[in-house]
Amino acid sequence: xxxxxxxxxxxxxxxxxxxxxxxxxxxxxxxxxxxxxxxxxxxxxxxxxxxxxxxxxxxxxxxxxxxxxxxxxxxxxxxxxxxxxxxxxxxxxxxxxxxxxxxxxxxxxxxxxxxxxxxxxxxxxxxxxxxxxxxxxxxxxxxxxxxxxxxxxxxxxxxxxxxxxxxxxxxxxxxxxxxxxxxxxxxxxxxxxxxxxxxxxxxxxxxxxxxxxxxxxxxxxxxxxxxxxxxxxxxxxxxxxxxxxxxxxxxxxxxxxxxxxxxxxxxxxxxxxxxxxxx
Length: 279
What we know:
Layout: E1 6-10, H1 20-35, H2 42-53, H3 63-73, H4 83-92, H5 98-109, H6 114-132, H7 144-151, E2 155-160, H8 165-174, E3 183-185, H9 192-200, E4 209-213, H10 216-225, E5 228-231, H11 237-253, H12 260-278
Helix pairs in contact: 1-2, 1-6, 2-3, 5-6, 7-11, 9-10
């Protein structure tokens, strides 16, 4: 897919799309409460889900990892039949997706793993709830379209998301962003780190690849592949995208983003996460 010398990878939910909070508050958390019958602890469970996925250093974590974290923290997981099977799938699979879980249940765990069955039911219900969300107005953050348009003149663009492909493709198409995307990689293609690794095989030098994301998982994926990272700060998205367009991209292409400038952005990223977790 390589057409240009530079590659910019962009996360979707919470980074390019202003959809993250809404999905977790209206889809992920409520589906968990419904499937496991936790209505009596609804607010407690929803608050825990929001903190793990939105307001902490695990922001943006894969849905199945988040499910395990929440169940363990709230005392639900260890006592639920089949939770050990679910944890084993997480450790062994190369793809944390609905399809992978179903295949693993059929081939490895059989049909006698109640937690895995519920996790699969939950993931399907989440997708259904997301599909049913009413879309009104613009979903992408202010500045995303203009920034991607400018970036695409000089660099290839890859969307790298831990969400399911159908949802990501529909959202980006609806916002008129797909024409600036050269490749779209989602949970079906593996972890974000795996996706970057696959893209590097096209021949991009690591110092000419920039990962743009809003979560620690995006930074970890970049670090694992030794590529550069630029954060979109939660609650400061418009400013972050404007800075990327007006300052960072030029520095990145001129080789001046490596080192001090990147570290300054990482420091701002960690400071912002700390503020989020304490608020």
